[in-house]
Write a sequence for this structure.
């Protein structure tokens, strides 16, 4: 996959406290970094997740599905770059594909499937992903890059 | 301090993932367990924190101050008992004192100072602690014990 | 799936601090609870993960793959039961299947694929899963149940 | 306190998942950021915590005491700068003082007291802080700055 397809990247300095007694990253932290990268992507278009949700009558752009494959271990002192390498849009969900690297070394590949959740009485229902797609693709030509 | 002064206790099984590369608990986890014990204390009186706050016009019973002293290390497989051993009530804040033990061994002593936060226009202000004291002390004779 | 196939279950009281600004569980916490349940399963057979690894020349029983599907949201005050409902053994990996429920409500389904990692000079290599299978299946008739 | 006394600073982008249902930072995260800043300070002198400990026969530079006062709430999207503003050296412990700010706004003040722990048979004992002080103060003229 060529770097130029990357939609957004964020860097995380892996710390001592992110690692377990085997000296490698405690794996739920990778999911925190996926989520954090997604929220950074949101903000990079100019609004926090909260503001975007308020403007679109959503309670959140929550997780429906997540997965990850661990390729090599991360350790204290590694500079981990998490990239959103592609987005697959459907009517009621979007899949973001992630890669995490330290230099040339691949640590993790994974994905998040997210939906736009609205309140519907006591329940939640899924809204169309259109507004999120328009916002993240920045069809208004305003897309700030970080 | 005799055990009978304990206001509330919760048990946490220390796991592999709670420990750092030195094989001992990554210390911010103790604060998570303090906070979790406080919320368990709230619920033990019959309501979640959210319901209590909604009923009293609060946005939260948030932290003003926290401290802890580490006496001996916790490890994977330890059954940690966190106890709220006393509460010191003031008009606009309350200090909860915590002890964490594994069997007879003392791991941690600490405290949380909490305030009752209300919205006041764009700002937050502190409400009187009276409603929280009445709720936690269960002066209505309904105090469920766990 | 009938309850009697469950290999191990652990209960987690979902707390205020486990939830995000939308008031539902911040999803990486579910992976922490999967991992914690696995480590509880290990201990329920009589040894911590560390002792098992030391005895078998392993540096860890680490993650190769993880996935989860979110069925309904967890909230502050929910008693979440995470169950390991089955294990699929292969030569060099094992897949544990998880379900998380609050009462009758299904919150999450997921899996972890784990391998037994040994040092091999500067690298890691996968050991056979046989010792872990024998340990967890308790073929010695000593299997304690929790 | 003037900015020029700062020993080390690190920036953390506060994310959605770092916040609780009240929409403000879940407080144990601040302690994670203190710890992460300390480890960044270690690395900024050229070695990870692990390498420093290995070279000095230590199992870790662990926490003895921690405290924090919360001045104003952090929220999703805030760029939090955590600074180590001073270090107070004693024979067997060192206190690092922290400040966390978002722009001009003070969010948190706190401290960590750390000791250098060595194995002594089955027990831990405290080593002199001299090697850590020499390392962090970079008396060898090699001190890299970040």
């Amino acid at each position: 996959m060529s770097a130029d397809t990357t939609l957004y990247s964020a860097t995380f300095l892996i710390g001592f406290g992110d690692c377990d007694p085997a000296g490698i990253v405690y794996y739920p932290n990778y999911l925190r970094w996926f989520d954090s990268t997604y929220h950074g992507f949101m903000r990079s278009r100019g609004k926090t997740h909260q503001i975007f949700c308020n403007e679109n009558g959503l309670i959140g752009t929550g997780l429906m599905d997540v997965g990850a494959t661990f390729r090599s271990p991360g350790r204290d002192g590694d500079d981990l770059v998490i990239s959103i390498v592609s987005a697959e849009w459907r009517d009621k969900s979007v899949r973001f594909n992630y890669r995490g690297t330290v230099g040339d070394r691949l640590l993790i590949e994974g994905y998040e499937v997210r939906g736009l959740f609205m309140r519907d009485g006591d329940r939640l229902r899924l809204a169309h992903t259109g507004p999120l797609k328009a916002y993240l693709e920045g069809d208004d030509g305003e897309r700030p890059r970080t």
User: Anything to note?
Assistant: Chain B has three helices and six strands. The first strand of chain B starts at residue 8 and ends at 13.
